[in-house]
Write a structure and sequence with these properties.
The protein is mainly alpha-helical. It is 50% helix and 5% strand. The longest helix has 23 residues. The radius of gyration is 22 Å and the shape is elongated. This is Aminotransferase-like plant mobile domain-containing protein.
């Protein structure tokens, strides 16, 4: 009888202490960086290859990641990064507005932006696009951070037979 009591108490204790779902960290928002004025820009030191070094390099990389998730600066409607060339000037200006960074870093910045943009699109596809589901379902499964018009174009592109990888 005592054994049954302990088993019931044990299972009750486990059900109380274990959370239903594990909390996960969301994407960074870089609120402090986006809140900086032009006068308070963060200085970025560069090595001889034009790559950032020092204490603010991680903040710069995180900031670039937030820029590519902005639908106005880096729309998801393009099939590759080079299609966004018209927006590169705006992306560079958004970067130098918050960071005191030299022109020598421009190549590294755009390489990082392109990589982050492709990674973002890939994550969206893995999390929200179901290949075996109808087009209507995938369109309705639009993430709240992506404009519906951009999502429709993306889903239609991913649904093309020549795009699907078998």
């Amino acid at each position: 009888m005592y054994i049954i009591f302990y088993i019931i108490v044990f299972y009750f204790f486990i059900s109380i202490t274990e959370p239903a779902t594990k909390r996960k960290r969301g994407p960074t928002k870089c609120l402090k960086t986006h809140g900086l004025s032009y006068e308070d820009r963060l200085p970025i030191r560069l090595n001889k290859y034009g790559q950032p070094i020092g204490c603010n390099r991680a903040k710069l990389s995180s900031h670039l990641g937030t820029l590519v998730r902005n639908a106005h600066l880096a729309p998801l409607t393009y099939t590759n990064w080079h299609g966004l060339k018209d927006n590169w000037k705006d992306l560079w200006e958004a970067t130098i507005e918050k960071f005191d960074i030299g022109e020598r870093a421009k190549g590294w910045v755009f390489k990082t932006l392109g990589s982050s943009w492709r990674t973002y699109k890939s994550r969206l596809k893995n999390q929200y696009f179901k290949e075996n589901m109808p087009l209507v379902y995938n369109i309705k499964n639009c993430p709240r951070t992506v404009p519906l018009e951009h999502w429709k174009i993306l889903v239609q592109f991913w649904s093309l037979d020549m795009i699907k990888v078998y």
